[in-house]
Amino acid sequence: MAGCERRTDRGFVTAESALVLPVLVMVATALIWGLLVVAAQIQCVDAARAGARAAARQDPPDAVVALARETAPSGATVTVSREAEQVRVVVVARPPVLRGLPFELREEAVAAVEETAGAPTRAEGT
């Protein structure tokens, strides 16, 4: 009778692996996607800053947008606006890989307008 009471654990490892493996794959996929989103956000930050610096030097708006788009993630939109003494560059992009998600990456940079060489200052012009 002692032989009848013996249990075997054969097959439990296979069943556990079949349940855990898909969860591990989903977690790894989510981590990789998160890293791609963070990398795209950093590209948006860099693009906005580069565009704001170029706009502050009073580069033409087309050149500012082109410079920012070189640094921004693919498909990003770049908006440049000038106010009295400041320039503002906004970069908006969709997250990579899962573009159907309802959020977007957005970064904004503001810089003070620099005076160009040889241009009259306010004191000289008045």
UniProtKB/TrEMBL annotation:
Protein name: TadE-like domain-containing protein
Pfam families for the chain: TadE (PF07811)
Superkingdom to which the source organism belongs: Bacteria
Transmembrane recorded as keyword: yes
Transmembrane segments: 12-36
InterPro entries in the cross-refs: Rv3655c/TadE, TadE-like_dom
UniProt entry keywords in alphabetical sequence: Membrane, Transmembrane, Transmembrane helix
Lineage, uppermost ranks: Bacteria, Bacillati, Actinomycetota, Actinomycetes, Kitasatosporales
The UniProt record lists the keyword Transmembrane helix: yes
Domain TadE-like: 11-53
Species the sequence originates in: Streptomyces fungicidicus
